[in-house]
Amino acid sequence: MINDRNREIGTFVPAADDDMIVCRCEEITKGEIRRAVHEGMYTITEIRRYLRCGMGLCQGQTCARLVKGIVARELKISPAQLEPASSRAPMRPTEMHILANEEKEGKRDE
Amino acid sequence: MKRYDLIVVGAGPSGLSAAIAAAGKGLKTVVFDENERPGGQLFKQIHKFFGSKEHKAKIRGFVIGQELLEEADQAGVEVVLNATVIGLYQDKEIVVRTGETVHHYKANAIIIATGASENMVTFDGWTLPGVIGAGAAQTMMNLHGVRPGKRVLMLGSGNVGLVVSFQLLQCGCEVAALVDAAPKIGGYGVHAAKVARTGVPFYLSHTIVKAEGTDHVTGVTIAEVDAHFQFIPGTEKHFDVDTICVAVGLSPMSQLLKMAGCQMEDNPKKGGQVPVCDEHGATSVPGIFVAGDVSGIEEASSAMIEGRMAGIRASEYLGYMQQEEEKSSLDQLDHALDGLRQGMFAPANRGRNITETEEGIPISENLLTHGFVAEDEIERFPGVTRSIGVHPVMECTQNIPCNPCQDACARHCIRIGEKITSLPAVNPENTCIGCGLCVASCSGQAIFLVNEQSEEGYATVTLPYEFLPLPEKGEKGVALGRDGQEVCSAQVVEVRTSPTFDKTNLLTMKVPAAFAMKARFYRKKAQ
Amino acid sequence: MESRIMEHPILGEIKKGRKVSFYFDGKKLEGYEGEPIAAALKAEGVMVHRYTSRKHLPRGIFCAIGRCTDCVMVVDGRPNIRTCVTPLKEGMKVQTQYGVSAASFKEQEEKGNEKI
């Protein structure tokens, strides 16, 4: 249902608060998120890939809920109906050199 | 790869409780926490907890934290700090970052107790330095000893917003206003009342229009909202503040569970994305359990019970406990948890419009909209009576699961009865000796000792006082009403402190007799 | 250091490490060893920790528990250090972060132009 891109959601209507920053890390505004929905991004995962909101340093800790609310409203559905973005490692921002630095002693079962 | 019987993620109240229960049954248990210190948010909780004895009522949160750490230590729980869990996989493999290294661990059972993260709202200027989460304020003042600001506006009237506002006042900040877009206060009335009586104005059905300032907050404008949360033009109010504190709820931090393949649901009653689990924390993946806020937003008191439940379930799952023993332990914990989930604020009552107390008394509307019980409402509650001589006045007007006052009075002047949520009533047959133990025992700071005629034309009012500097005997000042407005002049006749009062000082002030039922706070006269 | 709480009605005296000095954008400031850098800065009245990459807007302490990453700064030459959870050490060099650098946006732009 939600992913049915033929579903009529109307056209993008500019709003007074479109300049409001929603994703603090990547500095993505409410207007950009709303516009992305009208450009065909109906899922949180797509929105994240398209705009990078929720993919900055904090990994969506602050904005995930806000983004969900904005997308749901644009799609005229309840936020509960929107699948959250996938969860994958690393759960917290981790530098590449640390990710690559696996503990040696306790050897993994090779 | 290092192996454990049980890995617990999160060393907050639920995680530690889970580890204690499991280690007590002989499981080799480790707890990972990404923070520098254990205890989660407990060490920022400086107020006395609600509940009954079994819920550690009237003990301050940070003291409960210390007790939990000692218990964990005795039980042989290994707590690893600065250890960030960055991955959890279906076969119960866990990836942890400590320092500059990544480690892999495996366990036969996992308990996720990662807690919650703060929700936010957007408004013009919300990214300015000086706009902070309520948790940040608590961390700064109660852990690091630094005031978050000089003058603060609080957004959010849930328990967090109310409790943090009071804590801001305690550490010497000024709270300019407490604001909430909702038409009614969300948290406990007693928490609101202790903030209101110090003079903090409440603005319900109001929210922030914008935070002002170029490099940091220098002011804030709020405005009234209509039933659809739209600003009503012309209702704007401005405050000069350097800090805006946001306390608009919490969301479970459940991403690890989703990653591990647990079945998830979006449950607004539990605060958002939570794992589908049974009443004792078993998720859809065998051997993965949850406890605390990650499985649904509640209080630290319930999180500790849920933690014990998950610890017991994990013990039984791994064969360290027989089913009969498990059942009897869980029955006991079920009973304790049920006790906490009673009353007006019970999870089952969320979103429900309650108009009467369990006793059939109309609730105070003024308390819900202004933060204090109005003068024409207060005397309908059973804790508020008039009599000759010193007597307790319990301004406890909502059914919440809490009863330490009943136990505190050795003379049995206070009666709550079997039902923990009943409003405290005065037992007229017994005589109060004015010991003040009830005043200090009340986590809501809602009990006063009143002597309506201590001497000709004068009354004394004894109130809980948790501020510095402590007023001195003989000092003259003003008495404030429940609304925080000056009602009359007052003189301090006694200030009692005692280890049994646990930092709740008892301030007795003399006021003209006519103000015995009006004067509820004391302020030194400004020089 | 007027925002330091010297005595608290419930917590009593707040225990701190030894007093140390550190540098904020070259200026010598004081704080207590082991407390988060952000706490020391706050006590010294510093509100702005960084300016953002895209819109060049100021940011400071927001969550104070290492989650939001708004308070990151350049510490001892390393950018993106969460100052709210990084303990203060004697002589630490703390710098305002512009984007992901300690160089101002103007300097960054000039440098960029040089390369071209």
Fraction in helix of chain C: 10-25%
Task: Using the coordinates above, name the CATH class of chain C.
Answer: Alpha Beta
Assigned CATH architecture of chain C: Roll
Structural class of chain C: alpha+beta
Topology, number of strands of chain B: 28
How does this model look, in words?
- The complex is a heterotrimer of chains A (110), B (527) and C (116).
- Chain A has 4 helices and 2 strands.
- By secondary structure, chain A is mainly α.
- In chain A, helix 1 packs across helix 3 (64-75).
- The longest helix of chain A has 12 residues, at 64-75.
- Chain A has helices spanning 30-38, 44-51, 64-75, 96-99, and strands at 21-23, 28-29.
- A two-stranded antiparallel sheet of chain A has the order 1-2.
- In chain B, helix 1 (13-24) runs parallel beside helix 2.
- In chain B, strands 1, 2, 3, 4, 5, 6 and 19 form a 7-stranded mixed β-sheet that branches. Chain B has a 7-stranded antiparallel β-sheet with strand order 20-23-24-27-26-25-28. A 5-stranded parallel β-sheet of chain B has the order 8-15-9-10-11.
- Chain C is an alpha+beta fold and 116 residues long.
- Chain C has a single domain, classed as Ubiquitin-like (UB roll) (Roll).
- Helix content of chain C is 16%, strand content 29%.
- In chain C, strand 3 (19-24) and strand 4 (27-32) form a beta hairpin.
- The mean pLDDT of chain C is 94.
- Chains in contact: A-B, A-C, B-C.
- Chain B binds chain C through residues 34-36, 46, 60, 62, 117-118, 127-133, 135-137, 139-142, 144-150, 170-172, 215-216, 466-468, 503, and chain C through 3-5, 7-11, 14, 16, 35-36, 39, 42-43, 47-49, 57-68, 70, 84-85, 87.
